[in-house]
Amino acid sequence: MATRVKICGITRVEDARAAAAAGADAIGLVFYAPSPRAVEPARAAEIVRALPPFVTTVGLFVDAPAEQVRAVLEQVPLDVLQFHGDEPEPYCLQFGRPYLKAIRVRAGDDLNALAGQWPSASGILLDSFKPGVPGGTGLTFDWSMIPSERSWSLVLAGGLDASNVAEAVSRVKPWAVDVSGGVEAAKGIKDANKINAFVHEVKRV
Ligand SMILES: O=C(O)c1ccccc1NCC(=O)[C@H](O)[C@H](O)COP(=O)(O)O
């Protein structure tokens, strides 16, 4: 089964096009103002319009007021929402869109039990826990904590890059992998060569 690839934290049209050209399946747009990868809705709409067909667009929010999510959805044609904070299932469901729920993994977590709190999610994104940092940490976590028997679709994130993603895919067998810092030249600025290398490593496993 081919592992899907999401390139997260896109802030520029050229980076979105580079991700699509490399064979990425999805791009992520961060609607969380404190992030160095945050984009304004108008810019996000421009990025989405510049994409070729069949690339999924994912909008990322962190404990945003529901009105803010709705306002973004009115301006930006997003396919999927990604909730990276403490959003409970009823909050995630209210927008009528497929969604990913991010869980930041801590030592001792029972990941099947945690994932079970969002049975309506299209996928569960597992990311590294760093106090005070909701995402984009650039840190890996202990992949041995991930159960091999899962009833949910796993999106693996956290500190992935071209040097470790093949090992991650063969060990964990996620539905998809998600990367941000590992394909950047600087925060929010992607490097097309790193994107190409990352996608190549995923697809060769
Ligand atoms: O990228 C951010 O700045 C960010 C801020 C707040 C919540 C989530 C954020 N990013 C999410 C992602 O880019 C990825 O889903 C994931 O965290 C992987 O990031 P990285 O470890 O840099 O590959």
Annotation keywords:
alpha/beta, two-stranded antiparallel ribbon, 205 residues, TIM Barrel
Description:
Helices cover 29% and strands 21% of the residues. The protein has seven helices and ten strands. Helix 1 (13-22) runs parallel beside helix 7. The radius of gyration is 16 Å and the shape is globular. It starts with a strand and ends with a helix. The structure holds the ligand O=C(O)c1ccccc1NCC(=O)[C@H](O)[C@H](O)COP(=O)(O)O.
Summarize the SSE layout with pairings.
Blueprint: E1 4-7, H1 13-22, E2 26-30, H2 41-49, E3 56-61, H3 66-75, E4 80-83, H4 89-93, E5 99-105, H5 111-115, E6 123-128, E7 154-156, H6 165-172, E8 176-179, E9 184-186, E10 189-190, H7 192-204
Parallel strand pairs: 1-2, 1-8, 2-3, 3-4, 4-5, 5-6, 6-7, 7-8
Antiparallel strand pairs: 9-10
Bound molecules: the ligand O=C(O)c1ccccc1NCC(=O)[C@H](O)[C@H](O)COP(=O)(O)O.
Unique bound compounds? ligand LARABZUK
Oligomeric nature of the chains:
single chain
SSE pattern: EHEHEHEHEHEEHEEEH
* Strand percentage: 15-25%
First and last CA, distance: 10 Å
The backbone outline, from C-alpha atoms, is globular
Low-confidence stretches: none
CATH domain class: Alpha Beta
The largest sheet, given as strand count, sense and whether it forms a barrel, is: 8 strands, parallel, barrel
Radius of gyration computed on alpha carbons: 16 Å
CATH superfamily: Aldolase class I
Numbering strands along the chain, what is their spatial order in the largest sheet? 1-2-3-4-5-6-7-8
**Domain module count:** 1
CATH topology tier name: TIM Barrel
Mean pLDDT: 97
Per CATH, which architecture?
A: Alpha-Beta Barrel
SS element count, helices: 7
GO molecular function, one term: phosphoribosylanthranilate isomerase activity
Pathway: Amino-acid biosynthesis; L-tryptophan biosynthesis; L-tryptophan from chorismate: step 3/5
Protein name: N-(5'-phosphoribosyl)anthranilate isomerase
Family: Belongs to the TrpF family.
